[in-house]
Design brief:
Layout lengths: L1 H24 L5 E5 L6 H17 L3 E5 L6 H8 L7 E5 L2 H8 L11 E17 L7 H10 L5 E4 L5 H13 L4 E4 L3 H10 L4 E5 H10 L2 E6 L25 E9 L4 H14 L3 H9 L12 H22 L5
Parallel strand pairs: 1-2, 1-3, 5-6, 5-7
Antiparallel strand pairs: 3-9, 4-7, 4-8, 4-9
Length: about 325
């Protein structure tokens, strides 16, 4: 028995030593960052900025791979099944929380299939419309939507997309169901908004800033508590009479469950370095957002955020009755 116990102890010590050694040399090769949406979209933009800066800090390239489909659940599922060695990570947005209720069947357990690295940023949403829509302000838009509820259309980038979630929040805030038009991505939805084929969309500043500044779409409000530096003349939804419509699309980084704590911590520290990179700060500012603080770019902060957001969105989604199989 003593011999067996000694052997087991030696094996455990060897395992700890191996894990520690791996963490000290990590990373030894390139890392894949899965983005569960198409290239060129707002989440992809955030991911590529962060990946470039983290690559410099880690000394190994982070390769962004777009695995779109099913509202981000395909990409998340792929990471959940990946080897927990720190060489496959996931950058996902608020859909990580809402998919837990939106989808009746998921290939993974949202709260238990991942380790947490940290929060990246929280992007405000903008309520925008085709440039020739009649109302002049948000109050007028609400009145117009209620009066034309059977004909007005609200575009989104698909079930589970940020624009879909914000659209649900908008309809909940004005207590009026509207006709939603889902697209296969942000690009096609914005194209039809620009062309006047749909009336309204609620999407991230990372996707709407250039169009608003160029005057190709009409902006009615921003969903942040305060006005944005990039749009000082654009009122908040609270100023426009919808105090309940405050929503930001937060992004976080995850690894598969079982990834060594030291590796996750190394990624978290690298994320914190990246979020202080002057280029990242400047580019985020141009897109109407700011990087997360060191306190938020941590495993504990991301875990708490995900748990809280699942609880927050569950009643909103259930009330809307918009589920996906």
């Amino acid at each position: 028995m003593k011999t067996l116990n000694a052997l087991l102890g030696a094996v455990a010590a060897l395992s700890l030593f191996a894990a520690s050694a791996n963490a000290q040399t990590y990373p030894e090769r390139s890392i894949t960052m899965v983005v569960p949406f198409s290239a060129g979209g707002p989440t992809d933009t955030v991911a590529r900025l962060v990946a470039e800066s983290m690559s410099k800090d880690l000394g190994q390239q982070i390769i962004v791979e777009n695995v779109g489909g099913a509202g981000g659940t395909l990409g998340a599922g792929r990471v959940a099944q990946a080897d927990p060695d720190g060489y496959t990570v996931l950058l996902h947005h608020i859909g990580m929380a809402t998919s837990a209720t939106l989808y009746r069947k998921l290939a993974y357990d949202t709260l238990n299939a991942f380790e947490y690295v940290g929060l990246v940023t929280e992007v405000p949403m903008t309520i925008v419309a085709r440039k020739d829509l009649e109302p002049a302000d948000l109050k007028g838009l609400v009145e117009y939507a209620k009066a034309n509820k059977d004909t007005i259309t609200v575009a989104n980038a698909g079930i589970g997309a940020a624009s879909h979630l914000c659209g649900m929040m908008f309809m909940s805030a004005i207590e009026t169901p509207l006709t939603t038009v889902p697209y296969k991505g942000t690009g096609p939805a914005m194209t039809d908004l620009l062309g006047g084929q749909v009336d309204i969309m609620c999407d991230q500043t990372t996707n709407t800033t250039k169009q608003i500044q160029g005057g190709t779409i009409k902006a009615y409000g921003v969903t942040s508590p305060e006005r944005l530096k990039v749009f000082p003349d654009l009122p908040t939804t609270t100023e426009g009479g919808l105090p309940g419509l405050q929503v930001g699309i937060w992004h976080g980084v995850y690894t598969p469950k079982g990834t060594p704590a030291d590796v996750t911590e190394r990624l978290s520290k690298s994320l914190q370095v990246a979020l202080k990179d002057p280029n990242v700060v400047a580019r985020f500012g141009e897109l109407g957002t700011v990087p997360s603080s060191d306190a938020d770019a941590t495993p504990a902060a991301l875990k708490a955020k995900l748990e809280g957001e699942i609880a927050r969105w569950k009643p909103v989604i259930e009330a809307a009755g918009q589920y996906a199989d």
